[in-house]
Write a structure and sequence with these properties.
repressor (chains A, B), Tetracycline Repressor, domain 2, mainly alpha, elongated, transcription (chains A, B), Arc Repressor Mutant, subunit A, homodimer, 184 residues, DNA-binding, HTH-type_TetR-like_transc_reg (chains A, B), AcrR family transcriptional regulator (chains A, B)
DNA sequence: TCGATTACCTGTAGAGCGGTAGGTTTCGTT
DNA sequence: AACGAAACCTACCGCTCTACAGGTAATCGA
């Protein structure tokens, strides 16, 4: 019944995540996603009327994922998160690919990422403030530290995806956290 | 004669840079690039036999660009570079889009970026070593500082491209350099 | 001046794309 | 048992994409 349908949709979203990781959004065809769940492309379109609707569902899934309810993040949990991410390359790859595409004109995920980063920077500033107060040991305000924190996480992901052997993502991230936490 | 031809190819590469910035590599059609230089798609294929050949030329152009001959970069020049980049969003957008796509399977730019990052990390380590010796003031080795430096540059670019009003890319980068240069 | 090369063009093949139309099967409800 | 909706299919449309084939006009060296 209705539960069956939701389950099906969840399956499709999961498959879409995989295909986007492999080919990006533009390169991900509905047929490829459909095949992965044993449907025809038109069968898939019954659950998601357009390709963009499927993308929206993928992005919503991501939001649900990292909005762990009422968890007040702490700096040491961020390090653990990065470590966890290093074990789930598929997810990282999906959203790294989407982020890259999203900077192009009229990309359907552009607004999503813009708003997401505004939100994430604010969250990170909160985390830093909770840890260090209005000044980090290095002298930065939390609001100026936050974009750097986010940039390091994203930037390391690209380097790591391209060459996991050469880049110790969690280690490098810990180095950065240490840098933030050191006295000037 | 031959000079004419090279000039034409340069025009095409320039146009390709623009179109890739707008639509990514997968989204960039040869016809769109051709139109921008007043050619038909088939006319363009006379100069570059395949789409991939055109991409290779674009990547080569980039190499030529940032291999400013014999310039030994210094940390303060990096800050100036970021400032300069902030005035040329088209270039940044092109390569941010390409980087994002390149993490997908079998992307023709993947190897390029993998090798490029290996090289850039090594260069950055050299820069840091030239500035600070074998230990940064914060205690990091140059080899461990370099991936962070690169990550911050890339990560800030994405945030800035998505929302230039909200992200002071050069300022944030200077913050990071100060962080690297501070005593532990 | 001639022959060849270069720089294009038109035409078209061949595949893949997202999306629509409409039919059929399955299944829970009454 | 009958009905209606949901789930999914076949068939197809119109478009776009890269690339190939082959022709034509200009240009350049001998």
């Amino acid at each position: 019944m209705r539960a069956r349908s939701e389950e099906r949709r969840a399956e499709i979203v999961r498959a879409a995540l995989e295909v986007i990781a492999e080919r990006g959004y533009r390169g991900a065809s509905l047929a490829a996603v459909a095949e992965r769940v044993g449907l025809t492309q038109q069968g898939l379109l019954h659950h998601f009327p357009t390709k963009e609707a499927l993308l929206v569902a993928v992005l919503k899934e991501r939001d649900r994922w990292d909005a762990v309810p009422d968890t007040q993040w702490r700096v040491d949990l961020l390090a653990a998160l990065v470590e966890y991410n290093a074990m789930r390359p598929a997810i990282i790859q999906t959203f790294s690919a989407l982020l890259g595409e999203s900077v192009t004109e009229g990309h359907p995920a552009r607004e999503y990422f813009t708003e997401r980063y505004t939100r994430v920077r604010a969250n990170m500033a909160d985390v830093l403030r909770a840890e260090y107060g209005d000044r980090l040991p290095s002298g930065l305000t939390p609001e100026r530290g936050a974009p750097l924190l986010v940039a390091v996480m994203d930037g390391l992901q690209y380097q790591w995806l391209l060459d996991p052997e050469s880049v110790d993502m969690p280690g490098a991230f810990r180095d950065f956290l240490a840098l933030l936490g050191e006295e000037a």
